[in-house]
User: What shape does this take?
Amino acid sequence: MAGLPKINVTDITLFGNEASELEDEEIFFSYAVNRKELGQFLDEKSLIQIVCSYKGEGKSGLLRLVRRQLSA
Assistant: This one.
């Protein structure tokens, strides 16, 4: 197909970082999704929140979103 740009699928920057805590701030927040469940981590009545899940399920991403909301 003429005119279509070629994509190097072996480019390590193509899909972003596997670990959200290592992802650049601007890039992370360009694709991060604020879900309604995020609100329970911002509830002032709950002074302690515990996040528990398997590796790679989004704990660090969740905490980055919470930190951003609390800093705003």
About this structure: The mean pLDDT is 85. The CA atoms of residues 17 and 23 lie 6 Å apart. The radius of gyration is 17 Å. Helices lie at 25-31, 59-71.
